[in-house]
Amino acid sequence: MNEVNTLLEAFKQTDYQVAGHGTRNVQILKEAFQSFDGQQDSDIYGKGKIIEDFQDKMANYLGKESAVFFPSGTMAQQIALRIWCDKKGIRKVAYHPLSHLEIHEENGLKELHQIETVLLADKTRVIELEDVLDMEEEIACLLLELPQREIGGQLPDYQTLQEISVHCRNNGIKLHLDGARLLEILPYYQKSAPEICSLFDSVYISLYKGIGGIAGAILAGDKDFTEESKVWKRRHGGDLISLYPYITSSDYYFDQRSQKMDIYYEGAKELADLFNSCHKVTTLPLQPVSNMFHVHFQESKERMEPVLVELYKETGIGLTSYLREINATECNYEVSIGDLYANLPKDKLRQVFRVLERKMKELI
Amino acid sequence: MNEVNTLLEAFKQTDYQVAGHGTRNVQILKEAFQSFDGQQDSDIYGKGKIIEDFQDKMANYLGKESAVFFPSGTMAQQIALRIWCDKKGIRKVAYHPLSHLEIHEENGLKELHQIETVLLADKTRVIELEDVLDMEEEIACLLLELPQREIGGQLPDYQTLQEISVHCRNNGIKLHLDGARLLEILPYYQKSAPEICSLFDSVYISLYKGIGGIAGAILAGDKDFTEESKVWKRRHGGDLISLYPYITSSDYYFDQRSQKMDIYYEGAKELADLFNSCHKVTTLPLQPVSNMFHVHFQESKERMEPVLVELYKETGIGLTSYLREINATECNYEVSIGDLYANLPKDKLRQVFRVLERKMKELI
Question: Which of A155, A230, A360, B153 is 20 to 30 A from residue B171's alpha carbon, by CA?
Answer without folding.
Answer: B153
